[in-house]
Amino acid sequence: MLETSEKKRLDNLMKSYNLDQIVEFPTRITHSTATLIDCIFLDTLQFKKVISYSHVNGLSDHDAQIVILGSFMIECHKNILKKGFI
């Protein structure tokens, strides 16, 4: 996948908020191109496992994305609650 300066700037901006792009495959595929046009950013530190994959639905010119989120990192939130921050 092509790394443009705009993509790098967006990735750096999102990383400053602890967000990572979890879709790493093209979501729009034509006869001559393959591009990632549907971005999903997620705080991956909050989940033990994140899986994303493409689903061809035949309803649009681009594929759907399915994201499976593993166990939420509840231990962090338990500690915050114990210390009275919330």
Can you describe this structure?
By secondary structure, the chain is α+β, with helices and mostly antiparallel strands. It has one domain. The chain is 24% helix and 23% strand. It has helices spanning 5-15, 74-83; strands at residues 20-21, 28-29, 34-35, 41-42, 50-55, 64-69. β2 (28-29) and β3 form a beta hairpin. It is flat and about 40 Å long. The model has no long low-confidence stretch (mean pLDDT 78).
N-C termini distance:
42 Å
- State the total count of DSSP E strands: 6
Helix content: 10-25%
In spatial order, strands of the major sheet run 1-4
Give the ordered list of helices and strands: HEEEEEEH
Radius of gyration over all CA atoms, rounded: 17 Å
The biggest beta sheet, please? 2 strands, antiparallel
Note the beta-strand portion: 15-25%
Low-confidence stretches: none
Form type: flat
Mean pLDDT: 78
Number of domains: 1
- What is the count of helical runs? 2
Helical/strand content category: alpha+beta
Topology:
Elements: H1 5-15, E1 20-21, E2 28-29, E3 34-35, E4 41-42, E5 50-55, E6 64-69, H2 74-83
Antiparallel strand pairs: 1-4, 2-3, 5-6
